[in-house]
Amino acid sequence: MANVETPDALLVKKYVAGDESALATLINRHQSKIYGFIFSKIADRDLTDDIFQDTFIKVIKTLKSNSYNEEGKFLPWVMRIAHNLVIDHFRRNKKMPMFRETEEFSIFSIMTDHSQTIENKMISDQVEKDLKKLIEELPEDQKEVLVMRIYQDLSFKEISELTGVSINTALGRMRYALMNLRKVIEKHQIILTN
Amino acid sequence: MAKIYTKKTVVTKSMKPKKETISFLLNYSKALSFIKVGSMNIETVAN
Question: Do B9 and A32 touch (CB under 8 A)?
Answer without folding.
Answer: no
